[in-house]
Structure formats: C-alpha cells, structure tokens
Amino acid sequence: MSEVTEVVQEKALLGEGPCWDEINQYLLWTDILAKKIHIYHPETNKNRSFEIGQYVGAISVCSNGDLLLATEKGFQFFQINTRKLTPIHDPEKNISTNRFNDGKCDPRGRFWAGTMGMNPIQPTGSLYRLDNDFTVNKMIDNVTISNGIAWDESREKMYFIDTPTKKITSFDFDINTGDISGKKDIINFPSKFGDPDGMTIDKEGMLWIAGWGAGKVTRWNPKDGSLLAEINVPAKYVTSCTFGGKNLDILYITTARIGMSEEELNNQPLAGSIFSIKTNTKGLPSHKFKIK
Known about the structure:
Blueprint: E1 5-8, E2 15-21, E3 26-31, E4 36-41, E5 46-51, E6 56-61, E7 67-71, E8 74-79, E9 84-89, E10 98-105, E11 111-117, E12 125-130, E13 136-143, E14 146-151, E15 157-162, E16 167-173, E17 180-188, E18 195-201, E19 207-212, E20 216-221, E21 226-232, E22 237-244, E23 250-256, H1 262-267, E24 274-278
Antiparallel strand pairs: 1-24, 2-3, 3-4, 4-5, 6-7, 7-8, 8-9, 10-11, 11-12, 12-13, 14-15, 15-16, 16-17, 18-19, 19-20, 20-21, 22-23, 23-24
C-alpha cells in the first residue's frame, strides 16, 4: 500500500459516515457535531459543505439521486439542489437524550442505522432498519454506541460494532427478508488498536476497522479473527472508512478533533481531516437506498 495522504483539511469536530457515490464519483461524509454534511470531489479536490441544523450521523444516496440521512430527529431525505429536508420517520422521537450515529444500506437497498445516548454510558440505543416502503424495524436493542456495519459480497453475513463492547459481531443475514440471526462475536478488538468505530469490507471479505483513540485503521479476517494489516493515520481519533475511486481501491478515512487537548492538537494539526490511501485490494460499492 502507499502512504496515507490528507485530502480534505476541514478540521471536523466529529467527521463520520463516509459514503462513496459511484455515479458522481465523489465522497459524501458528515461532521456530526458541526451539523453538516460534505461532498468531496477528488477530481477537483474541492469539498462542498451543507448546513443541516441538526446532528447527522449517517448518509446514503437514494435511487432517485436524493440523499437519505440518519439525524438526531430520525430518518430524513435531503435534496442537494434545494437543500430541503423532508422527515420520513423518527423511531425515537420520545427519547430526547439519543441521536442517530453510524449507518448504511444493505445490498437490497434497505437503510440500517443505529442510535446512541448523547452521553453514551448506558445501552439506551438500538439498531433500526428502514425498509424501501418506509416502514421501520428495530433489529437490535440494548446498544450503547451503534457503529460500524457491513455485509459480505455473498450477502449471507452482516457485521456490526457496538463500540464499548470492543467486539465485532457477525449475524446470518437473509437478503430477501432483511432478517438477522445467529449472533456471534468474531473479533475481540485489542486496546492497542483503539476502540472499534466505523467499518467497511473489501471484495475478499476482509473487514477494515477504524480505531478511535489509536490513530489506526486495521484489516481483519472475520473467519478466524486474525489481524492482516494496520494503517497509521496522523490523527488520534479515527472514526470510519470506506472504499472509493474509479476502481474502488482508494480507502477514505474520516477523523475527529473532539476531546483533544491543545497540546494534542498542536502535535496533530491534521486531526479532523479526511485522509486517503491506495490499497492493494478493492472494496465493495456503497449500496443505494431503493425507493419503491
């Protein structure tokens, strides 16, 4: 692999939710605490920002070109041209102390996103599935910090991270119904690699996991739990990653500045930036939300 390169110097408070749009060839990402979404165009090296006015943890492209967001007020559509937000459903409208965090679409085009407490000590969050007819199903409860999620190319496995457990969990996945079963802990994430945060998967079925607090992204084999590679990032709080580029061989990495001391920020001036690295493998494409 090549070296990690900074591509967007944004000083994000809490950069998250990277999603590659294959059609437009750009990277979508969020700054949760700044209440913004961003679009980074690698061809022009320009980053566009959109004020949302509320915490936004995850983002996906819809089949009609609009965006689907998981926000502190539930699932919402966002039109880039008009900048209009349209509410869909808020499954936790009666839980003011929670917000949505990470999420993405499964291979059938259903949107999965999970919640967490604003002060995430207790397991008050859940993982939800927004179906194509806009019905919402609670899939996992008693979650503290709902984070990375991924599906393998065979569409038979789903992987999920609840950060404080320091475990990566697998489920048997039914592509037709969207149901999950057979929960199994497959990786115990070592503390030296940080707390497991966002996650993506490559064509070989290997998991790439952001290590919050350790300045690393690590690659793991979910079949035997073995570590395959580690990438050092010049920012302590690495939050997530996704594959992009024309060949899906560029790993884009989001980071954060929240919680860093003045001394740490002086030593890590690129904290909060978006980074990229060319890998020796290819990722799976980001799935779109399919509107019926």
